[in-house]
């Protein structure tokens, strides 16, 4: 975000934090839960700093602009028509509101929040730092494939329109105009919108929230088109990302950037669950390569790395599902217990805003529970745990915890364990854990963490008592 000369760095950081909250709020952004006072409580920032962040985000990253009264200033009021993110391009289209709809009841405060959420999603997308043509990037390859090479003036690009009135389509392409020009035009067009709920619809905000941690890649919302839920799985629509290694995503959003190896590990886990593979069953690279759109050689190389880590078995005949025992899982849970205790003690002394990503991830746990899908709750819970690990400020412990979590995920898939009956307990434990950390009560958080893992092992023992040795867990988890 652009800052004025002499402005303290705290405001720029606050802008980033508040933008992460607004971008992931979805349609709920219009409620009192996202007032400046509540966001200040959530982040630990002062209300004055949060209010200034709201204004700067809504205005496209500069001081001034929106003062809390928004929309309807144009003689021909507008509404958002389409938002499309397809690397290396973002397009935000506006169109005039039909005359018969211009009498909608004004809701300036609700509209202002919705508009700020759209601007926040653009800010946290990372698109400002996309590579420009000429550095071997996708943008360069696009040009080589036949896209126009003449960038033209900034005005030509920012006002670019295809199939719509000039000046009503804001387009961002790296190297063709500035990011500030683009966000400034979007903010200006929002100023001309009708200040009703439908100018920036809830289903658009839901799709942006679900993709906020993924750089908005794949967002393609069109007014009157199918809802996002028709295009994405339950896990995607709930914004439940898998867990990447620490430190590669936005500081304030739940992590979502995945290496090729991690993508393949996730695909393997889903294949094992969906196809009912058992230990020893052979897995070939070709179906995974086709599903992921990757070369077979790339997939085989990643599978070899997974085999080196014990997540696949390998031999002369290729790759197969590893032999996994209940003792292996208890071993991993005990290791995660002890590393997790270290991380929770680190979390408890962090400032409140460092826990923002974990608090957003907790919201994903609660959303998955409301949907009643046990597999999604399991995914969201492990993501929540990884966000806590990353917030602790202990990089080596966080990396160890991440590696253990990847192994747990694969092994639980192999054993075909169902977490649906444990959903209520998972949500209850996660809420209590977060409350203790926010209060700085490290040892109470550790106690809840131990109980949480105890409950998980008991659940697994109840599902397969012959496979899980309760005495082994008691020995390994002793502190």
Automatic annotation (TrEMBL):
Record key words, sorted: DNA-binding, Transcription, Transcription regulation
Q: Which GO molecular function, any one, fits this protein according to its record?
A: DNA binding
Q: Which SUPFAM superfamilies match?
A: GntR ligand-binding domain-like (SSF48008), Winged helix' DNA-binding domain (SSF46785)
Q: Which domain of life is it from?
A: Bacteria
- For the keyword Lipid metabolism, the answer is no
Sorted alphabetically, which InterPro entries does this protein's record hold?
Answer: TF_FadR/GntR_C, Tscrpt_reg_HTH_GntR, WH-like_DNA-bd_sf, WH_DNA-bd_sf
* Limits of the HTH gntR-type domain: 258-332
**Pfam annotation, one family:** GntR
Q: What is this protein called?
A: DNA-binding GntR family transcriptional regulator
Q: Which organism is it from?
A: Nesterenkonia xinjiangensis
């Amino acid at each position: 975000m652009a800052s004025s000369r002499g402005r303290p760095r705290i405001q720029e950081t606050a802008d980033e934090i508040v933008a992460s909250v607004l971008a992931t709020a979805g349609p709920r952004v219009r409620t009192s839960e996202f007032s400046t006072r509540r966001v200040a409580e959530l982040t630990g920032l002062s209300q004055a700093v949060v209010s200034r962040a709201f204004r700067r985000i809504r205005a496209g990253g500069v001081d001034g602009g929106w003062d809390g009264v928004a929309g309807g200033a144009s003689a021909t009021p507008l509404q958002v028509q389409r938002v499309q993110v397809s690397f290396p391009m973002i397009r935000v289209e506006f169109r005039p509101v039909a005359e018969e709809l211009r009498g909608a009841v004004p809701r300036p405060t609700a509209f202002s929040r919705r508009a700020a959420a759209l601007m926040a999603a653009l800010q946290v997308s990372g698109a400002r730092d996309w590579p420009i043509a000429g550095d071997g990037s996708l943008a360069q390859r696009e040009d080589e494939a036949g896209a126009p090479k003449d960038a033209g003036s900034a005005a030509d690009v920012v006002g670019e329109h295809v199939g719509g009135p000039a000046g009503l389509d804001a387009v961002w392409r790296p190297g063709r105009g500035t990011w500030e020009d683009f966000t400034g035009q979007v903010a200006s067009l929002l100023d001309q919108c009708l200040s009703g709920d439908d100018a920036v619809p809830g289903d658009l905000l839901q799709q942006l929230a679900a993709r906020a941690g993924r750089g908005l890649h794949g967002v393609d919302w069109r007014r009157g088109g199918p809802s996002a839920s028709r295009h994405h799985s339950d896990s995607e629509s709930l914004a439940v990302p898998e867990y990447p290694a620490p430190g590669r995503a936005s500081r304030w959003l739940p992590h979502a950037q995945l290496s090729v190896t991690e993508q393949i590990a996730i695909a393997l886990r889903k294949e094992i669950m969906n196809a009912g593979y058992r230990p020893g069953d052979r897995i070939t690279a070709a179906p995974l390569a086709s599903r992921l759109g990757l070369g077979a050689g790339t997939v085989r190389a990643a599978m070899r790395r997974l085999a080196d880590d014990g997540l696949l078995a390998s031999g002369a005949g290729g790759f197969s599902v590893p032999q996994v025992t209940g003792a292996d899982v208890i071993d991993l849970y005990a290791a995660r217990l002890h590393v997790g205790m270290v991380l929770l003690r680190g979390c408890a002394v962090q400032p409140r805003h460092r826990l923002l990503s974990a608090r957003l991830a907790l919201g994903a746990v609660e959303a998955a529970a409301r949907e009643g899908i046990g597999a999604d709750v399991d995914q969201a819970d492990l993501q929540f745990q990884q966000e806590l690990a990353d917030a602790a400020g202990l990089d080596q412990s966080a990396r160890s915890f991440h590696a253990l979590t990847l192994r747990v995920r694969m092994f639980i898939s192999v054993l075909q364990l169902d977490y649906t009956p444990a959903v209520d307990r998972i949500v209850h434990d996660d809420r209590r854990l977060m409350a203790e950390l926010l209060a700085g009560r490290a040892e109470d958080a550790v106690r809840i963490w131990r109980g949480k893992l105890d409950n998980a092992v008991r659940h697994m023992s109840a599902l397969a008592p012959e496979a899980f040795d309760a005495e082994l867990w008691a020995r390994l988890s002793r502190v």
